[in-house]
Design a protein that fits this description.
This protein has 519 residues and is mainly α. It folds into three domains: 50-135, Fumarase C, Chain B, domain 1; 140-383, Fumarase C, Chain A, domain 2; 396-459. It is built from 18 helices and four strands. A two-stranded antiparallel ribbon has the order 1-2. A two-stranded antiparallel ribbon has the order 3-4. A hairpin with a 2-residue loop joins strand 1 and strand 2 (121-125). Helix 6 (196-221) packs antiparallel against helix 9 and helix 9 packs antiparallel against helix 10 (316-339). The longest helix has 43 residues, at 476-518. The radius of gyration is 31 Å and the shape is elongated. Bound molecules: arginine. The site of arginine (ARG) has 12 residues, from helix 5.
């Protein structure tokens, strides 16, 4: 067989004819011109504009495939050299210079065969019919699946990098606020005093799991479907491991039908991104509420003003984080809706899958920086926060804990303090009032169990916090220990990310060297 044979295995893969001179989506192309003439549905079929996202990926996939084809004696060295040289020119010309076609795969192939001329200048010198050998032993089906994974892993790494940087900033700010007492809430009501550091670490901890999820997904994303052809393999003696290595993939999606059909890695990445989005939108909502209560002063960069109400300083960036991260949730829904019920093997619906993932990762990557930036640059008014932390008898649990620690069964202690809270009508009871409630419920004042100074301490928000030094609790000493552990986890994640980047860079260098040895 010659390199001009195509292994696109079904008629649906066929492509319109083309004059090959115009970057317009749906313009005719030299590839498979014999099958379909142009018509009104051509533009509808085209993903060329969306495919800009995988332009660089497609060039890399083409290069690795051609290098492998010539190493395997499937394509003559001379033709491989000419194709690889043309691919360099296509890269320099850019996605915008591509001739029309159904997609970037077809447009690049057309450019390699026919060349690109613009305003009388030759941007790509076409290889001629021998350029058609590039598509030997593959299909756009395995090609696009490889491009998606190649690009997706870059996006996962970019999101991971943003997350790791964001977590570092959060831990830095937290370390400055281990003693900044603030109200902690349940049901949006003041519940128990905590600290700004403890609140920040609650989000850093969630983002650390989000990081784990993405690191885990990365290993499944980073497998090569290339060499599966349309879905049914190929009679050519392809070396799938070789193209995988040249592209930095860590192994294969082995079954050819699975390789072209599978988009589960888009789903899990989008789900992980949507989970990050959910974490961030919770943080954003907290900050919006804090801003409205005067518990945080946002940096002007993260606020906006009203065009009519001169006094307003609104937390718009956080509101947009809340809104923008919704795009990731929507993306997950869109993706699952697109994929659900698709039969084996390739179906053109799949062309609509990638965009949901791209939008999800973009929305979340942007939002991490803004949400973290808002928290990291904000002022936390310590006095105001401390006063608010004690309001509404938020120290009540501390008093009950104190009694329970002195031998009163916790349920009884809860009952005493609950009655004192009801009697105080939303205020914090004094020691005298608490003693009176003790007499009423226990037959003895509270000072029969604990001394007055200890009760005063429990009623003081800072001391109340300091008492809760259990692992993961808000006491400054507990948070300090947590910060050490969290920093250790962050460093380990940073190393995993660096290692992945190092492996990809090494593969890219190797591909460059191989390409240069054939050009
Ligand atoms: N543009 C297509 C996509 O993104 C490429 C695959 C076309 N294959 C086919 N059999 N029509 O999915």
């Amino acid at each position: 067989m010659t390199g001009e044979d195509s292994t696109d295995g079904d008629g649906a893969d066929d492509t319109p004819a083309s004059d090959g001179t115009d970057a317009e989506a749906g313009a005719e192309s030299v590839v498979r011109r014999e099958r379909f003439a142009g018509g009104p549905a051509r533009e509808f079929l085209s993903s060329l504009a969306d495919d800009e996202r995988i332009f660089a990926a497609d060039l890399a996939v083409d290069r690795a495939h051609v290098v492998m084809l010539t190493e395997q004696d499937i394509v003559p060295e001379e033709d491989a050299g000419a194709i690889l040289a043309a691919l360099d020119e296509v890269e320099a010309a850019g996605h915008g210079a591509l001739p029309g076609g159904e997609d970037v795969h077809e447009a690049i192939e057309t450019a390699v065969i026919e060349g690109i001329e613009r305003d009388g200048e030759v941007l790509v010198a076409g290889v001629g019919p021998a350029g058609g050998r590039m598509h030997t032993a593959r299909s756009r089906n395995d090609e696009v699946a490889a491009c998606i994974r190649y690009r997706l892993r870059e996006d996962v790494l970019a999101l991971l990098e943003t997350l790791i940087e964001g977590r570092e900033r959060l831990l830095d700010v937290a370390s400055e606020h281990t003693e900044t007492v603030m109200p902690g809430y349940t049901h949006r009501q003041p519940a128990q005093p905590t600290t700004v550091a403890h609140w920040i670490c609650s989000y850093e901890g969630a983002l650390a799991r989000d990081t784990e999820r993405l690191l885990d997904a990365y290993d499944r994303v980073n497998r090569s479907p290339l060499g599966a052809a349309a879905f049914a393999g190929t009679p050519f003696d392809v070396d799938r491991e070789r193209t995988a290595d040249l592209l930095g993939f860590d192994g294969l999606v082995e079954n050819a039908m699975d390789a072209v059909s599978a988009r589960d890695v888009l789903v899990e990445t989008t789900a992980a991104a949507a989970t990050v989005g959910t974490t961030l939108s919770g943080l954003a909502e907290d900050v919006v509420a804090f801003a409205s209560d005067g518990h945080v002063e946002l940096d002007d960069d993260y606020a906006s003003t009203s065009s009519i109400m001169p006094q307003k300083k609104n937390p718009d960036t956080l509101e947009l984080v809340r809104g923008r991260t919704g795009d990731a949730t929507a993306g997950l829904d869109g993706l699952l809706t697109t994929l659900k019920g698709l039969p084996r093997a390739y179906n053109r619906d799949l062309q609509r899958a990638g965009r949901h993932a791209w939008d999800a990762v973009d929305s979340v990557t942007e939002s991490v920086e803004v949400a973290v930036g808002a928290v990291a640059t904000a002022e936390w008014p310590a006095d105001r926060l401390a006063a608010a932390a004690g309001e509404g008898f938020a120290t009540a649990t501390g008093v009950a804990d104190l009694l329970a620690g002195a031998g009163v069964p916790f349920r009884t202690a809860h009952e005493v303090v609950a009655k004192a809270a009801a009697d105080a009508e939303g205020n914090t009871p004094t020691v005298t009032e608490l003693n009176a409630t003790g007499e009423a419920v226990l037959g003895e004042p509270l000072t029969a169990y604990v001394d007055a100074a200890a009760i005063e301490a429990a009623l003081d928000p800072a001391e109340n916090v300091a008492a809760r030094d259990s692992r993961g609790g808000p006491a400054p000493v507990a948070v300090e220990t947590h910060l050490d552990r969290a920093t250790g986890r962050l460093d380990a994640d940073g190393e995993l990310l660096a290692e992945k980047r190092r492996l990809l860079a090494a593969a890219a260098d190797e591909l460059d060297r191989e390409v240069n040895s054939h050009v």
